Amino acid sequence: MRRRVAVAVGGLAMVVIAAILLSGGKVPLTDGGPNGQGEFSFRLGKVQATPITRTPPSELHDAAREAGADIKETMDEFYFRAFVDQGSWGDYEAAFELFDGRAATRAGSDQDVLTLGPTANDDFELLEPTSGTLTISVLTDGKDAPVSAVADVQFLADATGKDGSSTQIVSVGSFFLRQVDGAWRIFAYDVDREDVPGEVLAPSGSPS
Amino acid sequence: MRRRRLFAAFATLAAGVSGLGVATLQATPAASVPLMQIGDAHAEYGPSLAGSKPIFILILGSDSRPGTALEDGLCDSIHILGINPETKRATLVGIPRDSYVPIASGGTNRINVALSQGGPQGMVATVENLTGITFDYYLLTGFTGMTQIFDALGGLRIDIPYSFEGFENTDFTEGRSTMTGAEALEYSRTRKSLSHGDFDRSMNQGRVLLAAFAQFRAEFRKDPAALFHWIAVGMRNVSTDLPLNELFTLGFTSWKIRPARLTNLVAVGSIGTAGGASIVNLPSPHPVFQDIAADGFILPEDIPADAAPDG
User: Fold this and answer.
1) Least CB-CB distance to B38: which of A51, A167, A201?
2) Is B19 in Cβ contact with A198 (below 8 Å)?
3) Residue B162 lies in a domain
């Protein structure tokens, strides 16, 4: 299992490397907005149905894809508010409105991991997403209707610090969602955030 | 968790390669300046059980044959699962199928007839009368369901404490084993080749449940999406009054209960006969039932010596 996961992750990393190299280091995941940061959009990977009935999953593919598109909207908005949108840095109330029940309260105390952090405005000058992939598993109920989902997230961004340093932000995790008043909301999560320090590129031509 | 470390490592590699590529193309001399390591962090939350109130689930196995309703069979596997959210402990208590007890639908008989006489609700009521426990939910499966569950899960990884031959001649050898669904069923049904017959069989059934719990927990912690697979496989093969939301809650609760804090025992009694049939007379009140009813768990040191019949 671990080997397969490693191979899959390795393959994903190669795709990321290729995309970054081919695009000169920039993969546009944001569009619109005055600062080029109006929105953020994950690339939607595999969406699969997991039925609790004996209905073959292939027959629920369309329902799962439809739910997957709605779930993607929720996750796009969350990562936009939590990481990409500079206007939200340090105040993630809008991001946590996408959580349901006690998860919303708990998310506030986990904001160091779930967001760019409460001191993002002091720490960072700029953040540009370089990769974002979602894979979704949709659980269907006894009537074969989507009832819950797990969204596996892999998000990478390049952040520039106030001091000119560069940091790669890696957010990887699983979010459990369910429908609340017609919208998909997060009710559980299991997320890792890793900040990988980069190097400061000295200004061109300056003596070392 | 491991996949995330791998992903982070590859992401770092990707960043390094892309940085190298950009630097090469731009031919810009770069001065390496070590920066602060911000590090990595983890956060998790799930709607798990909380508080000191224990939850009780009656886990039942019917001997109904394929093509026959589960409720029409004899209930040859009866286990009380108690979970205490506060102490993060859980206990399984097996009830011998030959226990001679008052049946909720009327009369006194072997407890295993309560299912066919009153359905799952009749079985629950019978065990509630016997133990003083009020059950929150029940789970009922049968031979086909159990086989399909473990096959769909890729087998059952279990530690076999002693070797014996199954009733269909499978050699169950002491040590770590991965059983197919059919082997797990045979392991759970074998009685005659065990030293203490049905008491040992009930212990083995508890071992299967414990092993399944440990396997679920390990897979769930490695990949939270595994919860859906287990729920789906379970719901396809089990009859239950457990709603989906509660299944999620129980699943997330398992994050907090280590397998070592789950004890397995059997409520034993004396062997007798009634109407020419072999029966088990349980003491009344039974100390094991009193103990688990109080708070949902029994500490290993409080397990009566004869409640773990095969040692």
Assistant:
1) A167
2) yes
3) yes
- Within 8 A of B35 by CB-CB distance, chain A residues are 161, 165-167, 197-200
DSSP of chain B: -HHHHHHHHHHHHHHHHHHHHHHHHHT-----------EEEEEEE-----SS--EEEEEEEE-PPTTS-GGGS-EEEEEEEEEETTTTEEEEEE--TTBEEE-TTSSEEEGGGHHHHHHHHHHHHHHHHHH-PPPSEEEEE-HHHHHHHHHHTT-EEEEESS-EE-TTS-EE-SEEEEE-HHHHHHHHH--TTSTTHHHHHHHHHHHHHHHHHHHHHHHHHH-TTHHHHHHHHHHHH-EE---HHHHHHHHHHGGG--GGGEEEEE---EEEEETTEEEEE--SS-HHHHHHHHHS---GGGS-GGGSTT-
| pTM for the whole structure | 0.82
- Closest CA of chain B from A162, distance in Å: 12
> Is the CB of A176 less than 8 angstroms away from the CB of B224?
yes
Number of residues that this document lists for chain B: 311
- Which of 3.40.1550.10, 3.10.450.50, 3.50.50.60, 1.10.540.10 would CATH assign to domain A27-197? 3.10.450.50
Provide block-wise average pLDDT over 10 residues at a time, chain B (311 residues). Answer: 45 38 29 44 90 95 92 96 95 97 96 97 98 98 96 98 97 98 98 93 97 95 92 96 92 89 94 94 94 95 79 54
What residues of B are in contact with residue A156 (Cβ under 8 Å)? 11, 14-15
Closest CB to B41: pick one of A9, A113, A147.
A113
Of B34, B45, B244, the CB nearest to A189: B45
User: Which chain A residues are within 8 Å of B148, Cβ to Cβ?
Assistant: none
**ipTM of this complex prediction, to 2 decimal places:** 0.80
B115: domain CATH number is 3.40.630.190
